[in-house]
Design brief:
Blueprint lengths: L25 H12 L3 E5 L6 H10 L5 E6 L17 H5 L4 E6 L6 H12 L3 E8 L8 H7 L3 E3 L5 H11 L8 H10 L4 H17 L7 H8 L33 H10 L6 H8 L3 H13 L3 E5 L5 E4 L3
Parallel strand pairs: 1-4, 1-5, 2-3, 3-4
Antiparallel strand pairs: 6-7
Helix pairs in contact: 6-7, 7-8, 7-9, 8-9, 11-12
Length: 317
């Protein structure tokens, strides 16, 4: 039995992949749609894990009157012109659907792509552009920044209510976490959506190994403070998945996330692109890219091919 089956889930509900069911952000969603309808270029900013990719995925599903094109800059190839992605079917041409381009991880975009975006927007081939990255747009040309102007959407921390709503939505209301436990996870995660999911996953995995159906505040504190071990389980055979094994650690001693472990397992077979890992692990390209960045910072992986699409591999010792 997998750990998530213990709680009645068909699969892991806490995978940190983008989800179009964005919780809250009603005013933010409205502003984003207004910018698109106005034909603007806007900038979506926020720290890693704040929900930028999820909001962009939500936008692609709620802009039915347009041709939406989602690109992860990390996976674009400089040898493939932007026009390659701006192809219309005869049906779309008949109804004169305009293009809206959503560029995720735009800090990885090349100057060629940035110039092509501006040129196609100036020529009205693209109705609106949404670019998303963690930091400011200093990596973009000034004439592009001027066209963005003050059209900035900044994603801040979640509210405690948002944390509870997200976990209820993810678990289809089969939620083993008591309200106080959810509040504690939110505090530990500093109300960052991705970290909330990572901590909720860790807590539920540990409590499943202990065969505990309801999880309270003190359970969360024990797990997240590192005061509980999987071999404390009265029945360790309840789960056959690898989480019962001792958690892998990077060379600097930090515990790797479940997604980081899966990425490393795949990279043992050779170097891969973000797109390949995304499809293999059934996670968003944005999530994979962010985990790869973390692994690179920990000195575990490196970029083995810098030409686009980039390839990543393990650092050989």
């Amino acid at each position: 039995m997998e750990w998530f089956q213990f709680y009645g889930w068909k699969d892991n509900p806490f995978l940190p992949k983008s989800n179009p069911r964005v919780i809250g952000l009603h005013f933010t969603k409205k502003r984003l749609l207004e910018y698109v309808k106005n034909g603007d270029i806007c900038f979506l900013s926020g720290p890693a894990g704040s929900g930028k990719s999820s909001l962009m995925r939500w936008a692609t599903e709620n802009l039915s009157g347009y041709n939406t094109v989602y690109l992860s800059a990390e996976e674009t190839d400089d040898d493939v012109p932007l026009e390659h992605y701006l192809r219309q079917s005869a049906w779309d041409r008949l109804f004169k659907k305009q293009f809206v381009l959503l560029l995720d991880e735009s800090q990885e975009s090349s100057i060629q792509l940035q110039k092509a975006l501006k040129l196609n927007w100036d020529k009205n081939r693209i109705r609106s552009i949404i670019v998303a990255q963690i930091e400011s747009l200093k990596n973009f040309p000034q004439n592009f920044q001027h066209r963005v102007g003050s059209r900035l959407i900044k994603l801040d921390r979640m509210t405690q209510s948002n944390v509870a709503d997200m976990l209820m939505s993810r678990t289809n209301e089969k939620n083993p976490l008591e309200p106080e436990a959810i509040e504690e996870i939110g505090r530990f995660a500093s109300y960052n959506p991705r970290r909330v999911l990572e901590f909720a996953e860790r807590v539920c995995m540990e409590m499943a190994s202990l065969e505990k159906k309801r999880i309270n505040l003190f359970d969360v504190r024990k797990v997240l403070n590192g005061k509980i071990k999987s071999d404390d389980s009265p029945n360790p055979k309840i789960l056959k998945s690898s989480f019962i094994k001792k958690k892998k650690q990077s060379k600097n001693g930090s515990v790797l996330s479940p997604l980081e472990k899966k990425i490393l397992s795949n990279l043992k077979d050779g170097s891969h692109t973000v797109r390949f890992l995304s499809k293999k692990l059934k996670s968003s390209e944005g999530s994979i890219g962010k985990q790869l960045s973390k692994l690179a910072q920990k000195g575990i992986i490196t970029t083995v091919r810098k030409e686009r699409p980039k390839k990543y591999g393990l650092i050989q010792k």
